[in-house]
């Protein structure tokens, strides 16, 4: 992942102390904690059969939206990355070639777009900064994984698929929806609108 | 030497100084913004009207006010002249109108544009403009064009300030660059798509206040605020060799001339420095460029909060000299701490 600044630190595994390397004391200590929990009230629910209620504006995994015609809305302007307090977002831009107008909405698009879900604090500032209504946080929960690398989500996981659109209307106010209908703003115009003119 | 008063501040300036230059000598908030005037280019100015000021007293001998706002870059001072800029609501209103006019045909494609973050039109619109436009008609459209193989022209973004034309006229020899046509269809052009192969043609990129002329070698490479500016020089046979390198990670993403606090180029640089020397080994690095901390370019460039930490340490008595100060006003102010 490309580093925008050198503020973030790389995590390296530290060497174990003698006590930790002896193995048995740590295991016994762990087993004791496990055992003690048998007599306590359960803090967990049986996910996914049982789910806790979440707010309608819950901020979970991000989605990169496509427009109605299926073109990617993101234009790699970098405002989400500069707004991000956790420095979780990086991207690289590329120029749209002729014939790719149905794939990308603007002249420039994000060739790579990565969000490090371990860094992300789900504050939603990226969504607020986005001038193209491309990135939204959804009510989907970020799945856990075994390695750190898997938690860096690329475009393959972030961009919504054409078949399964992600509904984000719950996250938008009436004003935003009205703004999106207004064809006076150039970024709301599709290729068809431009042709009509 | 005539004395002029700008927004209540009096200054004595040499004969023939313009109001704008006099305001720049005073400095601060009262300096009118400029889009077309460029102190390094002769006969520049007078096109964009953003530097409008009100002359409330013409001179000592003829104290009548001037009937209309005047362009401060083209009006020279008279003895006893009184000028209003930010103290006149009328001027602020007029300037907002000028910004609206400049933005009429501007595509507002800032998320795509490479100039975003260092664009003078962006700053101008942000500081002096209004949030809404009343314009509902289609904006003028042009195909984007290449001027030579290193410079990209986006005519849609151009505000026709003529700076690039004056640069091509005065800095390079042999004019190949001008404005063709008039009115809405006016556009910057080279004679019959002549490639500019002059050594100093790249400077038109730096003088352009908007994203109309951009560096093709930097095109879509990085947003300005993700690059780090560093001042550097090299022994160049054609130009002064004093440049600003913009680092993206460890690589030099682009090379530009150094700009002063008015956003004007300090010394012109040649195309060889600008386009062909993009390795750290080509340059002698002088140190990080001074960027205004309010600029988006300085975002994320601070290193650590060392000053604050040492203050806390001192409060706890961790410092060896054991100077324990009472936690009073300013004790936790990082500005009090010397780096």
CATH architecture of the domain at 62-196 in chain A: 2-Layer Sandwich
Unreliable runs of chain B, pLDDT <50, ≥5 residues? 320-339
Q: Can you name the CATH architecture of the largest domain in chain B?
A: 2-Layer Sandwich
Cα Rg of chain A: 22 Å
DSSP, total strands of chain B: 14
Alpha-beta classification of chain B? alpha+beta
Distance between the termini of chain B: 44 Å
CATH class of the largest domain in chain B: Alpha Beta
Number of helices of chain B: 7
Q: How are the strands of the largest sheet of chain B arranged?
A: 2-1-5-3-4
Mean of residue pLDDT of chain B? 84
Going across the major beta sheet of chain A, what is the strand order?
A: 2-3-5
How far apart lie the N and C ends of chain A? 43 Å
In N-to-C order, the SSE pattern of chain B is: EEHEEEHHEEHEEHEEEEHEH
As a percent range, the share of helical residues of chain B equals 10-25%
Strand residue percentage of chain B:
15-25%
Mean pLDDT, all residues of chain A = 87
Q: What is the oligomer described by this structure?
A: heterodimer
What spatial form of chain A do the alpha-carbon principal axes imply?
elongated
Q: Do you know the CATH topology of the domain at 62-196 in chain A? A: Alpha-Beta Plaits
């Amino acid at each position: 992942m490309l580093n925008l600044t050198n503020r973030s630190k790389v995590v390296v595994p530290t060497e174990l102390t003698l006590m930790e390397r002896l193995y048995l004391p740590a295991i016994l200590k762990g087993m004791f904690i496990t055992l003690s929990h048998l007599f306590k009230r359960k803090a967990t629910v049986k996910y996914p059969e049982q789910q806790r209620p979440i707010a309608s504006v819950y901020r979970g995994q991000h989605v990169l939206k496509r427009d109605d015609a299926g073109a990617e809305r993101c234009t790699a302007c970098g405002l989400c990355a500069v707004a991000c307090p956790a420095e979780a977002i990086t991207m690289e831009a590329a120029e749209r070639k002729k014939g790719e107008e149905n794939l990308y909405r603007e002249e420039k698009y994000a060739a790579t777009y990565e969000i490090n879900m371990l860094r992300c604090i789900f504050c939603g500032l990226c969504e607020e900064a986005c001038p193209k209504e491309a990135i939204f946080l959804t009510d989907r929960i970020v799945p856990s994984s075994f390695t750190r690398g898997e938690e860096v989500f690329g475009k393959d996981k972030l961009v919504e698929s054409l078949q399964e659109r992600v509904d984000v209307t719950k996250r938008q106010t009436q004003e935003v929806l009205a703004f999106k209908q207004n064809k006076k703003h150039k970024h709301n115009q599709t290729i068809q609108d431009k042709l009509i003119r | 030497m005539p004395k002029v008063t700008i927004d209540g501040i009096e200054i004595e300036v040499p004969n023939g100084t313009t109001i704008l230059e006099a305001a720049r000598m005073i400095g601060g908030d009262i300096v009118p913004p400029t889009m077309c005037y460029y102190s390094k280019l002769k006969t520049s100015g007078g096109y964009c009207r953003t530097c409008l000021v009100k002359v409330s007293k013409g001179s000592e001998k003829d104290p009548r006010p001037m009937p209309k706002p005047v362009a401060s870059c083209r009006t020279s001072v008279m003895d006893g002249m009184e000028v209003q800029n930010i103290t006149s609501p009328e001027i602020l209103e007029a300037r907002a109108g000028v910004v609206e006019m400049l933005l009429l045909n501007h595509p507002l494609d800032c998320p795509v544009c490479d100039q975003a973050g260092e664009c003078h039109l962006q700053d101008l619109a942000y500081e002096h403009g209004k949030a809404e436009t009343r314009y509902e008609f289609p904006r003028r459209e042009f195909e984007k064009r290449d001027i030579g193989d290193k410079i990209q022209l986006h005519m849609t973004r151009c505000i026709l300030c003529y700076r690039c034309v004056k640069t091509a006229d005065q800095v390079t020899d042999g004019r190949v660059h001008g404005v063709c046509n008039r009115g809405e269809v006016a556009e910057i052009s080279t004679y019959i798509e002549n490639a500019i192969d002059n050594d100093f043609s790249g400077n038109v990129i730096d003088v352009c206040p908007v994203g109309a002329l951009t560096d093709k070698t930097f095109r879509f490479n990085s947003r300005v605020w993700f690059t780090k500016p560093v001042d550097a020089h090299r022994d160049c046979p054609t130009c002064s060799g004093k440049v600003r390198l913009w680092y993206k990670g460890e690589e030099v993403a682009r090379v530009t001339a150094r700009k002063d606090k008015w956003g004007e180029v300090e010394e012109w640089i040649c195309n060889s420095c600008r386009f062909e020397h993009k390795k750290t080994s080509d340059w002698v690095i002088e140190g990080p460029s001074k960027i205004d901390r309010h600029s988006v370019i300085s975002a994320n460039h601070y290193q650590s909060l060392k000053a604050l930490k040492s203050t806390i340490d001192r409060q706890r008595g961790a410092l060896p000299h054991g100077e324990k100060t009472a936690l009073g006003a300013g004790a936790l102010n990082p500005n009090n701490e010397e780096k």
